[in-house]
Specification:
This protein is α/β, with parallel strands linked by helices and 250 residues long. It has eleven helices and eleven strands. The protein folds into two domains: 35 residues, no CATH class; 188 residues, Vaccinia Virus protein VP39 (Rossmann fold, 3-Layer(aba) Sandwich).
Length: 250
């Protein structure tokens, strides 16, 4: 209703007696009909809030989850605002992580990588609309291949980590509408991590930070994949699930 009437929440609630015009009612009915199909609200209204910022949404990008804010917080807890750090966001999608970090770290230079050109176009729009377009460089890349010869202080990523066998157990509005490329990793769910972690070791400076979102029950195997790294630790989400893996390059 807020979207149909172009009103904020307070304005909508302040006038509960308001009657809709025929045009407004028809517009609202169209939106409800879309929602009945299972289409996520974020795709219907075309936006989502993440870390206090507004992001454009489309079916080409994964909808940012509140859990991913823990990943942003984990990076912010290791970098101060006056540091001129180089950050690379792998699998940027809507650009939520890259844009939030660029916004909150004014001296940071951020590279945002994705295999999807459509996602990169949306991410670039989000960067520009949030005022950080000049400090985020968007590149088409399979993981870190496009920046293999560069060096960074932070590699951050929310990669695909859902097993293909879990497709049927997902909510239909996720499996049917969100991009499979951003959701599914393969038969084990660790396929992307197995490629990303050694690539991250190649582009990080000594002591550089690797920060990754992980799925439920994945921390034990991620720990094994991070052998040879230092300061390996996990950050739990509000449900007590290990959600973020952190490690330093030796």
């Amino acid at each position: 209703m807020m979207h149909a009437l172009s009103l904020g929440r307070a304005a909508l609630m302040a006038r509960p007696e308001r009657e809709l015009t025929a045009e407004e009612s028809a517009r609202y009915d169209v939106l409800i009909a879309e929602r009945v199909t299972g289409r996520p609200i974020q795709y219907i209204v075309g936006e989502q809030e993440f870390y206090g910022l507004r992001f454009r949404m489309a079916p080409d990008v994964l909808i940012p989850r509140p859990e991913t804010e823990h990943l942003v917080e984990a990076v912010l807890n290791t970098v101060t605002q006056d540091e001129a750090v180089r950050i690379v966001d792998v699998g940027t999608g809507s650009g939520a992580i890259a844009v939030a970090l660029a916004k909150l770290l004014p001296r940071a230079v951020v590279h945002a990588l994705d295999l999807s050109d459509a996602a990169l176009r949306i991410a670039q729009q989000n960067a520009e609309e949030n005022g950080v377009g000049e400090r985020v460089l968007f590149l088409h890349s399979d993981l870190l291949e496009a920046v293999a010869d560069e060096r960074f202080d932070v590699v951050v990523s929310n990669p695909p980590y859902v097993r293909l066998g879990e497709r049927e157990s997902l909510d239909a509005q996720v499996s049917a509408f969100e991009p499979a490329l951003a959701l599914f990793a393969g038969e084990t769910g660790f396929e992307v991590y197995e490629r990303l972690i050694p690539q991250a070791a190649g582009v990080l400076r000594k002591g550089g930070l690797l920060a990754m979102e992980i799925g439920w029950g994945q921390s034990t195997h991620i720990s094994e994949l991070l052998r040879g790294w230092s300061d390996v630790r996990f950050v739990e989400d509000l449900q007590g699930i290990a959600r973020v893996a952190l490690a330093r390059k030796i």
